[in-house]
């Protein structure tokens, strides 16, 4: 339920519309490709999560095998994506509230101004972020009860939407009237990252980062990831299938897929088809779904930041766990402050979303490298779940994550890398305090990642115009280059391991598994 509540957030409310505008009916393939990308990545983390069931685990795995610098880069990239998700869900809820159609709700119409959150709306966003935090502030048990109730609601409403809209007016001709791929095959891949599909799926990691609090992690980490992902993938694909089929044929003929414009896509369709009760229910869910996801991510983000303390590149007081409630309250408060600052500076959903998918994918790149490295250097570690076909799946996941990063388009790639670099002063400050002990070794362990970030930035710039580049390397030759070079970086990464104190800490943690 925790995984499901995180994955089905604000993305389902407008992801189908955004994907259709980019790729037309072929957007349904975008959701399938996105599922394959995230599924391949999650496959690797199931083995890691069960080997090291710990709070904020995804911030630590890379450090175990490649030293503190790579660990810091992965943890910082992951934290950036997560801390941005908190205000994004609050903004999404407030944006939908601003278009509530009822006469008693006219006071909400001032929440948006010029497609951005107004000062009044900003105050409401702050209140949402505060409530997200307080629901996590008093114990994991309260969070679990809340997310279980919310998850049931979030599961039922999309299914009701699918059935009702399909019965109300489905036009099979929508799939062919403008052509199945009206904007070419490149648009299918562009939609996968830029329309929020990767963003919608990537929350599977909440199960891993809550590993220490999960009962029977050997079974429940893999179950939590697999079940929540499978259910979410089915729902998202059915939603896209439904959206394409129920768009009014008149609007489609007049404007084409690029011109389809809805303020609240599924609610607007329900209104056009006369399903008023669903119209009202969708406006309520447009408040509940982002709310549930925001609550889940406060829990995950606080544990991610607290875990960075264990990497010895953040002040120790940030990672302090409240003994009574077993939650990292200081980290929670810091994330609250950062979330408020982010939304005060960037008041639109799109601006906040621009870095999430790419920073997440960069963090995910370390997973396949780490799990393969551990197979080589620690064959005797306990593996409650030892994955088959890892020699194929790990490099495949690395390549797919690389392609999805490229699909985010220039200049998003370079913006995210700059954001990641902004965290390095923290790393070097603590290295200075430790007298630059083993810094050269740590740098060696992360040189492959530094080279990779330079490569993906340059290729994003000189790549095809379909993905924002200058078309020096046209589509699909750009894909071929990414696949070949990414495989080289993957093998470089696996061979760049360093046996530091962190590796011995990993051995001690793994040895505690019963």
Q: For the report, how would you describe the main beta sheet?
A: 2 strands, antiparallel
Evaluate the radius of gyration.
Answer: 22 Å
Strand order of the largest sheet: 1-2
Distance between the termini: 25 Å
Quick rundown:
The chain is mainly α.
Q: Can you characterise this structure?
A:
With 514 residues, the protein is an all-alpha fold. It has 24 helices and 2 strands. It has a two-stranded antiparallel sheet. The longest helix has 35 residues. It is globular and about 65 Å long. InterPro entries: AA/rel_permease1 (IPR002293), AA_Transporter_AGT (IPR052962). This is APC family permease.
Q: Helices and strands in order, then pairings?
A:
Blueprint: H1 2-7, H2 11-23, H3 27-51, H4 61-66, H5 68-97, E1 112-113, E2 116-117, H6 119-137, H7 140-168, H8 186-194, H9 197-201, H10 205-209, H11 217-246, H12 249-255, H13 265-272, H14 276-310, H15 329-345, H16 349-353, H17 356-364, H18 366-377, H19 390-407, H20 412-421, H21 424-433, H22 439-462, H23 477-494, H24 501-511
Helix pairs in contact: 2-8, 2-11, 3-8, 3-11, 3-18, 3-19, 5-6, 5-14, 5-15, 5-17, 6-14, 6-15, 7-11, 7-14, 13-14, 14-15, 17-19, 18-19, 18-23, 19-23, 22-23
InterPro entries: AA/rel_permease1 (IPR002293), AA_Transporter_AGT (IPR052962)
Protein name: APC family permease
Transmembrane segments: 22-46, 67-97, 117-140, 152-171, 183-204, 225-247, 276-299, 330-349, 361-378, 390-408, 414-430, 450-473, 479-499
